[in-house]
Amino acid sequence: MPNCDYCDAHVSDRFARVFADEDGRVRACPNCSANAGIAEVSRDRAHESKSYTHE
Questions:
Q1: Measured CA distances, 33 to 53, 54, 55 (Å)
Q2: Terminal CA-to-CA distance of the chain, rounded, Å?
Q3: Is 36 helix (H, G, I), strand (E, B) or coil?
Q4: pLDDT, tens digit, for every residue of 6-44?
Q5: Which residues have CB under 8 Å from 31's CB, separation 6+?
Q6: What's the predicted TM-score (pTM) here?
């Protein structure tokens, strides 16, 4: 069962297929971001996560 990596809420397999990144991580979901901006929030969180790992 896929979960949002940010808030740990359950998401459907279908949602994960659409919004997961290339590593299969769901960084934003309807519970922790506005529905209209899930892709943008997910992209921003992925960028923030990568910048933390490079420091």
A1: 23, 25, 26
A2: 32
A3: helix
A4: 999 999 999 999 999 999 999 999 999 887 788 888 889
A5: 4, 7, 9
A6: 0.70
